[in-house]
Amino acid sequence: MKKIRFVLIQKQLGTRISHNEAEEIRGFQPHFICFPEYFFVNKRFDNQDQTPHNFRRQIQRIEKLSKNLKTVVIGGTTPELYNGNIYNTSFVFNDGELLGSYRKRNLFFTEVERITPGHTFRIFTAFGIDFGILICADVFKEESFTEMKRLGAKIIFIPTFSPKREESVEEKFKRDKDIFVQGAKISDAVIIKVCGVKSEYKEFLQARSLIANREGVIYRVNPEEEDKEMIIKKEVVI
Q1: Which end of the chain is less congested by CB atoms within 10 angstroms, N or C?
Q2: pLDDT score for 130
Q3: Of the candidates 81, 103, 82, 83, which has an alpha carbon nearest to the alpha carbon of residue 92?
Q4: CA-to-CA distance for 147 and 68, rounded, in angstroms?
Q5: 39 and 9 in contact (C-beta within 8 Å)?
Q6: C-alpha distances in angstroms, 218 versus 85, 90, 182, 229?
């Protein structure tokens, strides 16, 4: 059993980490930092658009953050240009070194015909721990969690783009249990879900970041904090 420190970056999409936020994160000395889905985008574009120049800039941002903070950064997602297609991809760096990437397999309806789905689940290793990534709508397929179990993931990071719903707190909490606690049971892994905050760029988002294991929700953002930017720092026994 290990105590693992996580930082969840619950911020507006397309923004940057400030100097003060970087110092706060550095002081916590996290093993892992996770950003929301579509965090590494250019707000002048639609979040599903990309250019070669901007793509290189976004990857450099993730690499630099990882190196400066000397930790593993799960770079939320950024649109990836490859062979004329655009993928919704999460890039993973450890202390400035690229560990690899994962392309979202199960697309949200607004991504269909614009984003090309990935085909392969992946496992990464850092600090002696195997971990995987699922992106947003991947969680709606039980196969995603069974594959994470088969591959041996002990942590599953889930960068998420969460549109606001009209629902009660009880309905929110039930959905957390039905999807994320159940997913933790299936995979026997700790779930780290990170969401973006609404802004003028994407005003319909709700930030419902959480941490869960097979026993239940370890941490969740309070309903009244779903519009609040937060640097969430948590230590969890894995």
Answers
A1: N
A2: 98
A3: 103
A4: 33
A5: yes
A6: 38, 24, 13, 20
In contact, 41 and 78? CB cutoff 8 Å: yes
CA distance 85 to 114: 9
CATH code for the domain of 126: 3.60.110.10
pLDDT of 37-73, one tens digit each? 999 999 998 888 899 999 999 999 999 999 999 999 9
How many folded domains does the chain comprise? 1
Rounded Cα–Cα distance for residues 162 and 131 (Å): 22
Q: Let me know: does 35 contact 12? Beta carbons within 8 Å.
A: no
Of the candidates 186, 134, 178, the residue with the CA atom closest to the CA atom of residue 156: 134
Can you give the pTM of this predicted structure?
0.97
Range of the domain at 156: 3-237
At which residue do the structure tokens 């309806």 appear?
109
pLDDT at 1: 85
